[in-house]
Design goal:
alpha/beta; homodimer; 10 helices; Creatine Amidinohydrolase; 398 residues; Creatine Amidinohydrolase, Chain A, domain 1
């Protein structure tokens, strides 16, 4: 019987969490690890259910081969862990507040002491050297406090376990997709010359959080991106209070989010008659998307999608130079990608049913940009399924 | 004459950026640094104006004693740098996309090569070992690629330069304060038993981004936090689709944001008649806030605020155990604090005019929580000024 003081509303079944833990332990065993220290908040949540905006302080989950994971974080956030993780209450451990942003003490000193108490002083411990929120200082402190432990770089080890989605996860992603559809529909209706960009973002965020089909909306791991005209050459600009203008294209990169699961979608709205450059680029991009979707089949490789996309673009004289997609699912800021596979020419990862990607061939040229994308599911057979049902074209408004 | 291909809408005057650079260079000189590698996106923006949601890949700003800073990041994001930084266009350098999330290459290899080309191969280079987004792997790669350079930990060096706000910055913060006031007014009007939490957050986000007083709203570095009832023991829970309930208190931690400048504010709404515990806690907290504001004077120390707050709380039997505030200003996710001073008993930093804090004495007990806070400005004389004008009490609605 679980020992829980609080009623919990876990997103997933016990079986789903066990599936994840067993998979992760198998990967640990392959690396000969005695323990795994997970700091990426997306990995923490995927393994334990932990959900809170506390990743601005040091925290993590310790995965062990033969005992339930341990959540470790700031004392005040252990209250959040007690309410959101599936483990027994005694698996949530807090550190004292005087470790927070101190120049004399580091939270990793507390963690190292606890690891030593668990007999891990001479263990092989996997750490995420290049995942979010595990700072260089955190690593160095942990290593100096546990001088006889071997800290092994297992960046993205857990991320890789997340690649193939379960049916439970796909239910969440389909709910997120409905939110993305709603956001794009609102954009097509509302964007007009003279309307201020922030006024449009206000409605995007409202639509995103109101949710769709009776399901509430969560915050996306990235804010809406919507550069216009020449600025659309820069993929990651946010917004200001300037109006949309006739003669300019704006791409909108957004994602609905349901309980941390994302289904991003991008569409471009052109106000006024587009130039020949846009018309030709759109045609080539749509052909490339179609080819890429057809190549996105179980048994093919990630690079096959990239190569299929590139051919019609090259025929139109467009060289992209950037990857054209990444896996998606559960995420926390600053990224909604899973940071494992990249859809690009040198990635030969074999596609498997249940993998999910944002197929994202953004065109960012020196002074214009165009984004038309699809979030996709690799199926048992046939081309990829798109999560969203939104007309796949550049929207032209007078 | 500056060499800029694009028209820019820099948030601040040239004089303001020079003030910042000169201050930072003086701090570098004190540490004997030949160069400073800045990865914290808030520090990057404060020094150069760079603004984009690209901090999910490796990037940074190189500050030099005798030449303009260099922005370095992913190729596609150099388009964003060209449009947002004050330096000449040739000071924005991009790295090739095949470095992104590669297991064979690391972006720091590109950076190290460029540093070597600048003659920094044997230099003393400051790095932010415990700031955001500088991963352990990034540090180790940089060190191994520049084996003769000394990488010196200067975590928070730039953050400390940001503490005292200029008049230009205070203008932005006052605009953010108006947005915070508007958000809280909306909450007091809209929160009712039976209303879903996500529906309220949808309106918070809409109000935040519509802005106030004719100024547009930016995204805050933290999403709204609004746990209810027992969950309010956990400070960093976000929301779901459950309704607000009679008999429960909910605290709302929000921040208006104008061009990345934050003025957070928290208020608590109690639906139905509050218990004696809440009534007594509110009275003690208000007394503590009043005492703390009075202690928040130039010449006093950070700890004086914490001690002044603690006395009435202790008399009411409330021991907090967490710091009661932090500096605020320009920020990017995941935190809107500046991570330098902490308002707590062992921080003896002397308060100076122009410093700005979120005085944040949240009460997170084992099964209830109460937040009533103020964002404040330390003035030349007298007690701190509050940025917002919102009744300082727990709001009780039937």
């Amino acid at each position: 019987m679980p020992n829980h003081r609080f009623t919990k509303d876990l997103p997933f079944s016990d079986a789903e969490y066990w599936r994840r833990l067993i998979k992760t332990r198998a990967a640990m065993a392959q690396q000969g690890l005695d323990a795994l220290w997970v700091t990426d908040p997306s990995n923490m949540a995927w393994l334990t259910g932990y959900d809170g905006w506390s990743f601005y302080v040091h925290q993590g989950v310790l995965v062990l081969p033969d005992a339930d994971p341990i959540w470790w974080g700031r004392n005040q956030d252990s209250n959040g862990a007690l309410r959101t993780v599936w483990m027994d209450d005694d698996r949530a451990i807090g550190y004292a507040d005087h470790f927070v942003q101190s120049t004399e003490r580091h939270p990793m000193q507390d963690l190292a002491g606890r690891m030593a108490d668990l007999g891990l002083g001479k263990a092989r411990i996997g750490v995420e050297l290049d995942n979010y929120y595990f700072s260089a200082k955190a690593f160095m402190t942990l290593q100096s406090e546990l001088p006889h432990a071997a800290l092994i770089d297992v960046t993205a080890l857990v991320n890789w376990q997340r690649g193939i989605k379960s049916e439970e996860e796909l239910v969440f992603m389909r709910r997120a997709a409905k939110i993305s559809e709603k956001i794009i529909a609102g954009l097509i209706e509302r964007v007009e010359p003279g309307v201020a960009k922030n006024a449009i973002v206000a409605e995007i965020q409202r639509d995103a959080i109101l949710g769709a089909d009776g399901h509430w909306g969560d915050y996306a791991a990235i804010v809406p991106l919507l550069p216009s005209g020449s600025d659309a050459a820069a993929p990651h600009l946010t917004w200001d209070g300037e109006p949309f203008k006739t003669g300019e294209a704006t791409f909108f990169e957004i994602s609905g989010c349901y309980r941390r699961y994302h289904v991003p979608l991008c569409r471009t709205i052109h106000l006024g008659k587009p130039s020949d450059i846009f018309v030709r680029a759109e045609a080539a991009l749509l052909e490339g998307l179609e080819s890429g979707l057809d190549a996105a089949r179980a048994g093919n490789r990630a690079c096959d999608i990239a190569v299929a996309l590139a051919a019609p673009l090259e025929r139109a004289g467009i060289e992209r130079g950037a990857r054209c997609g990444y896996p998606i699912g559960l995420s926390y800021p600053p990224d909604w990608g899973e940071r494992t596979i990249s859809l690009r020419a040198d990635d030969e990862t074999v596609l498997e049913p249940g993998m999910t990607f944002h197929f994202m061939p953004g065109l960012w040229m020196s002074d214009w940009g165009l984004e038309i994308t699809e979030s996709i599911l690799i199926t048992e057979d046939g081309p990829a399924q798109t999560f969203c049902d939104v007309p796949r074209n550049m929207f032209i408004k007078p």
